[in-house]
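User: For my dataset I need records formatted as: sequence, then structure tokens, nothing else. Please produce one.
Assistant:
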Amino acid sequence: MTYKPARTALAAAFAALSASTAFAAPALEEVVVTAQKRAESVQDVSIAIKAFSEEELSNLGTNNLSELTEFVSGAELFDDRGAGQPTWVIRGVGLADFNSNNTPTAAIYYDEFYLTSNVLGGIGMFDIASVEVLKGPQGGLYGRNTSGGAVRVNSARPVVGEELNGYITGSYGRWDAAGLEGAVGGPIGETAAFRITASTTQGGGWQDSLATPGDDEHGDRDFSAVRAQLAFEPSDTFNLLFKLEGGEDKSETTLGYSRALYDGNTGDYCASAYAGKHNENDCVTLSNLTNALALTPGDPGILPNGQREDGTKVLSNPINGLDNSWTGANLQMNWDFDFATLTSITGYLNYENNQVFDYDAQPLVLFHENAGEAELTLWSQELRLLSNSEGPLTWLAGAMYAEDEDEEHRDGYLTENVLVFSTETARGFTQTTESWAVYGQVEYELGDAWKVHGSLRYTDEEKELEDAFHYDNRDEFYYIQGVDKTAELDENWSGHIGVDWAVSDDAMVYARVTQGFKSGGFFGGFSFSSDELDPYAEETVLSYEMGFKSMWLENSLQLNGAVYFYDYQDVQGFTQVFSETTGTVVTKLGNLGDAEHTGAELDLVWLPLEGLSLQATVAWLDAEITDSDTLALDQAGEVFPIEGLKRSYAPEWSTSLQGRYEWNISSSLLAAVQLNYSWRDDLNDEDTELSNINLAAFSYEDYQVLNGRISIGSVEQTWDVALVGRNLTDEEYWANATGDDLASFTSIPTRPMSYAVEATYRW
């Protein structure tokens, strides 16, 4: 573990700052956000926010929301299966659960519509106008499941009065990865406008499975989506925006790397595992222990030493993939009543999530999910009234109602897992959620320098689990059948109080206390008794935060920072218990106890001279379980208390750096070069895990990623061509490290260095 690369890079940035103050510098453009449901400068909002504009998103070369976590310090990504189920973890706040019936702690709002499940983050990101990452609890304006923060994704909209316009972008790169995206918009008479956008990405397979002959070239993307929007403004006091969209994702997802932890002679954990390390040279996988009984006579099986830690060669069967599809609609209407504006937002989404996954990441069928089907249907209606006053008093009042349903049926295959649990199973349930809330927020200016503000929200939510079952197909019996459960909120209130002090025209200091919560629910994984499906309660957080926002050097340098303390009650998470049914240590979801998070962040944006821009962010975090009676088993069956453990996906240090330089090659040509660097401290280390055995199974070390982009185009920005590179240092690191509860342990590798040529034409 080291943070020397981050410290060195930051030191270089500040050295450059000191060296070039003599140069005349351009002023930063104002960044406008809608984090508080009204358009405001980001420097006037007393929330820690990382905002990305349409241009910034294009320059970063991101094509999905999950990739943005690299550029937000204090934010991490949990994706248990390597793709398709991204879960944001902000400031160490997050429940690392891949099941679609659970809700993330950092809510995703897509065009003001709340996406209730982590799987819905896979709908893709194209033709996006802005993304706003709000750090810290947002229980007042955003309500449930925002204890970690909120991520607002705003698609590009049609503009009434604009002429016909659009763009088309094509790309081609390593492993035959190709993409095509385009949009066209324009007027419909004098009072309406349209915008139609389509995107597809194909190819890019980079992995080879040692379980099959030849090169599998696994990992091809097969994603396509379309969005159509209509804006209508018949008068100065009324407008509406209607959106229809749909898409499908049939991509192959990342194959896991199997961690070898066993002694091939004794069947016990090997010496390296007892020392806290996985060792593919001296230890073997569960598949090697099982092959004598499960494989055909004379087949020696596959030893793990052919694997590569960069993930290009793995033992996993090449079956991992998605078959997702979705349709959605969104209607937003605004009425201006002079004193206030009434907004109505109606959203609907139907999402079919089908995924096949090799949990054990080994040649045998030790645990495959060969049919993982979930259909999610959600809709919501929100009304809010926003004052039009410019002060001293501004206010907002709103109400919302939402329903969602998750109907699941998943088949598990363990037919060659003869040492542990050889069978075939089917499980499923229907989970419905009904929620309503009323909320309000007020701000009052006390003279020119001080402002007080507060928000309050009451939320009512009921979840029902219906007809949950787990069936053994081989021996034809039910572990559980027809199980019904109900969960309701015990803590219904959330909100905040705060004060802002305008130190000068260019600097503001703020303090706020916020109450937030994440809803309870039910475990969506394999259960062998009705008791395992008892609901877990909501977790609550009381947050104390102080921060500042400032502009320096004639508005050419922006420096923002924050310190915070979170007091968590009834933290949700996973522990380990022994299962008599499987004969292994299995995962149990519930409330673990209390936790405390203490952290600090610093963000810098600087334009030292014409054409050059620098950005630097750094975050420090200490997050641990402080009070808990929970006892957990490590993978060897030893009992340990979890009190005092550091929380997973909460690195002590994280940083992101960016440098971009633009210059004119000629009077008609513009060139640009951009580098982005991201570094994360250990996400799972000896302070996180119960024992050395668990450390060997689940450790997830620090990593750094360097991305780059070089482009040339017209000064009028009608066209450009770019060379884009990701992971330029070919860093080997994991996206996740997990187990299947049946004695196999898997790491999800990340893509090695990739590059592509990208061309865009705009009109």
